Amino acid sequence: MAKQIVNESLNVDKELVQRARNAAKFIAKEVGEFIEPRTTVAIERTVGRLLGIDGVDSDQVPLVNVVVDHINDKGLLSTGLMYWMVNACEHYSMTPQQVAQKVAEGEIDLSKVPTVKPEMLKQKMREYAVESLKPINNSKDERSRMIDKLGEGKSPQLYVIVATGNIYEDVIQAQTAAKKGADIVAVIRTTGQSLLDYVPYGATTEGFGGTYATQENFKIMRKALDESSEEVGRYIHLVNYCSGLCMPEIAAMGAVERLDMMLNDALYGILFRDINMQRTLIDQNFSRIINGYAKITINTGEDNYLTTADPYEEAHTVLASQFINERFGLDAGLLEEQLGLGHAFEMDPDMKNGLLYEIGQAQMSRQIFPNSPLKYMPPTKHMTGNIFKGHLQNGLFNLTSILTGQGIQLLGMLTEAIHTPYMQDRYLAIENAKYVMNNAHDLGEEITFKRDGKIQKRVDEVLKNAVTLLEDIAKIGLFTALEKGYFADVKRPFNGGKGLEGVILKDENYHNPFSDIMKAKNFEKRQQKGGV
């Protein structure tokens, strides 16, 4: 992704920033110690997908669900899917796909296949994993080839959404947006899919508020945007949602089908979908390991906090979450330039000097995370249906973005809060952004911030509050902080929410070579870049 020049004229207290990072590191370490001895049904299904298990049974249940449920029902999933699958493959001289089909047909009971000691199979499991990662390696190579050939949009890259519910209609809208100037296209996921503990199969033409995230839909849209990339002469990035109860599975599907970005927040599912916090934090770690390996940029969801909490009073929670998401990402081996940390332009437009506070928040984030692209979200909370005022609000949002050097710009729609945007709404959004960003292109390099001014004082306040919050969370732990409602004014119970039954303690023989291989490669890549 194109790197943005960072104006560092705002005085950001480096000692406070370091305290924030130290606290985030401590928080993440505690969560990591909780994650390490646990797996989930979603992670085990992901291992199956990475092994190449695809398709559905006669009842249209995904084969990975069939196999994982089969092992789990026998009380054996604590050893991991990899062991039972490779053991059967070696015994029957079958592929993982063939074994899965036999399990679905009731012809193989994995618990009754003669076993060897797990230690004796470790090297064989690794060989299966190395071979199975070739499709992801090919996808990475193809992305690099296309970007080298075509180039990509200048930063901030213009990001638009499509959300018809029909993948074929989405293709039309996505290709039209690319022709008009969009650099990034996100296919909004259908309402409620994050709560499904399985991934639907095949191409889909019905969805409410968006389109189902399936591997076939990923394939269809990737092919369409590759065609558009060749036509417009720049690589068009594809985005989907790596969240919910199938978070790591979607990461694996996206890695194979060459998605370029994934909405992948550590806390979003807990706060806004009431998914159990244990399940979410375990799943997000493996999903980020996969995204890191596949060179996918993640987008985090701090902007959502400001839809339920006051954007002025709770701005420090956004910054605190950015630090936490950064640390979780780095611990999974992501590069800083893969961390599209989220924030938003959500101040009440009737607030005096609201624009100054927005500029301060955006500039502060830019300077604190100079190597991360930052995903900047448009005004939504205070859009009223007045399309003329809304268009102006989006103009100020675009001005703030170019002024402060954001990297990923999700364009605001003048019809926000009225209906799912039409194609002409996207065209006007792209036109607005192009106009403002061209006319104010170098403005950020021409100005400095008054040392004792309103913007500086606001930034000092937000940063101090974020440090206080992070150090408080470090004392009580992230799980307790989530129970107490520290983020977005939402409280969630440690043992409540959806998906807790899918959390499983690993036994002493558990082995997931995919995690080991990908994480090692991620950290090797970061060492080569001299990363954190």
Q: What can you tell me about this protein's structure?
A:
The structure is a single chain. With 532 residues, the protein is an alpha/beta fold. The model has no long low-confidence stretch (mean pLDDT 95). It has helices spanning 14-35, 41-50, 63-73, 81-92, 96-104, 118-132, 134-150, 167-180, 215-232, 247-256, 268-273, 277-293, 305-308, 315-331, 354-368, 387-404, 423-439, 443-446, 454-476, 478-484, 513-528, and strands spanning 38-40, 157-162, 184-187, 237-241, 261-263, 297-299, 339-340, 342-344, 375-377, 408-410, 503-505. The radius of gyration is 23 Å and the shape is globular. The chain folds into two domains: 40-132, no CATH class; 152-454, D-Lysine 5,6-aminomutase alpha subunit (TIM Barrel), CATH 3.20.20.440. Helix 2 crosses helix 3 (63-73), helix 8 packs parallel to helix 17 (423-439) and helix 15 (354-368) packs across helix 19. Helix content is 53%, strand content 7%. A nine-stranded parallel sheet has the order 7-6-5-4-3-2-10-9-8. It has a two-stranded antiparallel sheet with strand order 1-11. Strand 3, helix 9 (215-232) and strand 4 (237-241) form a beta-alpha-beta unit.
